Fold this protein.
Amino acid sequence: MVLFVVVKLKQIFEQQRDYPWPRPERCPRCQECRLWGHGFVLAYFDESAEALYLKRFRCPGCRCVIRLRPKGYFLRFQASVQRIYACLRQRLVEGRYEAGISRSRQRHWMRALQRQVAGYLGEGFRERLLEGFSALLQRGVVPVASNLAF
């Protein structure tokens, strides 16, 4: 299970395992009060050349492993939501890809957005992809996920 928390990647990079991660008050699954530290897991983000340590906790009641992740990132994505949106906006408005991120990655985001918009919002949004991005976010859908999960 992943919990999104407000943290600063730069501080995590500087402090590594010593970063003071916020401890969840309860297990999101069973509401158990006791949570044990369960070590760290490495994760990559675009803002850092090296992997960063993300804190994990374990619930002794239901044995759920809870991983903390910086808010503002989708699951399984290294780029922030803002960066993905900015890349898509630049491509749709200015007609060119953003420098600094591979074109294949940006094309992947664009194709996935087109599929998600068509699947969830219908063909009427086909020409309003940026509006569709925001609408999907409000629904709790990852707009650039490669799979549709109805």
About this structure: The chain has two domains: 2-70, 81-138.
